[in-house]
Amino acid sequence: MSKTTTATKELNLVQAVNEALDQAMAKDDRVMILGEDVGRNGGVFRATDGLWKKYGNDRVVDTPLAEIGIVGGAIGLAINGLRPVAEIQFDGFMPAVFDQVVCHLGRLRSRTRGKMSVPLVIRAPHGGLIHAPEHHSESPEAYFCHTPGIKVVIPSTPHDAKGLLIAAIEDPDPVIFFEPKLLYRAARGEVPIESYTVPIGKARIAREGTELTLITWGAMVQTCLAAAEKVGRSIEVIDLRTLTPLDLDAILASVEKTGRAVIAHEAPNTGSWAAEIAALISERALLKLLAPVKRVGGWDIRMPLFRLEKYYIPDADRVAMAIAETLAF
Amino acid sequence: MPVKTIATMDIKRLEILSPDGKADEKLLPKISKELLLKMYRLMFQIRAFDERAILLQRSGRLGTYPMITGQEATQCVPPLCLKPADWVVPTYRGGGVYFARGMQMRYALLYWAGDDRGTHFPEGNNDMIFSIPVGTHLTQVMGLAWGEKLKKTGGVAVGYCGDGTSSKGDLHEALTFAGQFKLPAIYIIENNGWAISVPRAKQAASPTLAQKAWGYGIEGIQVDGNDCLAVYKAMTDAVERARSGGGTTLIECETYRMSHHTTADDAGRYRDAAEVASWAKKDPIARLRKFLTAKKLWDEKAEMLLARETESWIDAEVAAYEAFPQPNPLNMFADNYAKAPRALVEQRAELERLLEAKGGPEILTTLPPAEGRFP
User: Fold this and answer.
1) Cα distance from B345 to chain A (closest Cα, Å)?
2) Where are the beta strands (DSSP E) in chain B?
3) Which of B132, B270, B343 faces A135 most closely, judged by CB atoms?
4) pLDDT tens per residue, range A271-316
5) Rg, C-alpha atoms of chain B
6) Do domains A8-192 and A204-328 have the same CATH topology?
7) Is B216 an active-site residue?
8) CATH node for B12-323
9) pTM, full prediction
10) Class of domain A8-192 (CATH, top level)
């Protein structure tokens, strides 16, 4: 945290997002919100609740239903001096914006030899386990992490949600900001009342331990904390908070201490961000490892409809088994 | 050089049956008594089904459900103009379309209960599963129509979308191709006034969505979407055009989403009750009932019998839906590839081990049999 404050209040994660947006808009009149249903309705998860009333039609914009329009338009707005925060309503609608993200968003700074930048935030809910319809429970982070020139952030606590979102809005480069929808109301915590930032690119030690490093992000942080309790051993849980740029220092420091690493996440393992982290640990800390790095993720199939989602996304038991196997190696 | 008008656009709107049930006899399409009664029956039944589905959701017996109420004419009538082999892709709010195509509604419930076995259409129908990321099916519908043209089947492909989706680039690309290749495609925009909380006026600035057709060199027409006779006429004309090589039609059906976006939405946050009430007066079912009654094709007794029959039908469908056992978790590995690759074989075995670790060694024998093709 760049600044410490004393006064706090208890918020859930979606309220923390709302407060971050509100404070960023109050502080900087270039900040605007655009997306589907973000205005009068306050967003389908109520992340922008009250902001349309407070800041009006020009700063909280209900757009036509067109994701490429939202993101392409936001890129133009950002280049032209605004600070847009675009909302994509569900993770499953993110693939629609891919052309803009891959071919333009992450490349414009480099293509213009630094003359242009795209200070744009794209917010989207992330992950499963809320019994949502098809295409509403996806974990598409790897596609975006794979794309150069953009940052990918995913908080797991109300405190980090507020501080990271303000940091993302202030960041000179594009940030994809995933919000674990399972935690929107389930995660509650004390949040400073004043505006503050949590630095992008810094992981958080969610639980200290010495025997094994459990690396995770998003809603899976809660699952991992439960799994760590279950196994009754000294497990260190790292909440990455930022997926790119990765806090490799924090990962390596922990793995060099424990000698064992498990990476848990919701997406299919193949080609996942967990795969990248496992590769980095193997490249940089091989001789400190006492066991192979293990990944616990979704299966290499599409997210099933919700009756089977609990068998797709790893639960605490599955993570605990992976921990036990890695400890026993 | 003078500025010349080189083209002008002409957009027509078709209305046949007024809200009080009186038909414009000059425009009345040739339609049998049986078909009129079938339309009424389908619309009546799907509304009752919709009401029951909402109750099921509210009592925790169903997942998030998108309501159909108000859109019965735009959903139940176009399928009656088609053959089973014609392709139809509705929107996710398309239960009425599938019902009119003969789907057993237990499967619709199963789908909205989060069960993949709910994707189940009548044998012989070319029905396709809708797309939840809206509009992504519209170019596919163009491809389906293209296939019919290349195979010279005389078949057509019908794609639905909403007023919100008409803003997406997908429709632009679909209509561009469909116009260019003169494809036997029909696009129905169910303009129900609202894309969740965003009103129609906040989508395109154009006064109609039908006029989009003009930019692609295809036919376009707006109809009163709560007027089943107008929907029928526009659709039969479009089917005839498509089958006879005349190309693609865009039909904008102006209707109204009488309920919330889904059971997860609260429309009271963003729209006036007065607007909803004004549309209640234009109800498609009441309108046809008045027409049929005036023509002595319907009476209170028939209505009562239909209501009773509908209740038993819904009871039976709900019972059949609830009789499905929970799916075997291993089902999710089936049918991902024609032949499952090694990774899936390994992962399925891993899930079996996990299930055994949690439920004991006998767990796999107590689960319902795994369904689908694997490996």
Assistant:
1) 11
2) 12-14, 87-89, 126-127, 157-162, 185-191, 194-195, 198-199, 219-224, 249-254
3) B132
4) 999 999 999 999 999 999 999 999 999 999 999 999 999 999 999 9
5) 23
6) yes
7) no
8) 3.40.50.970
9) 0.97
10) alpha beta
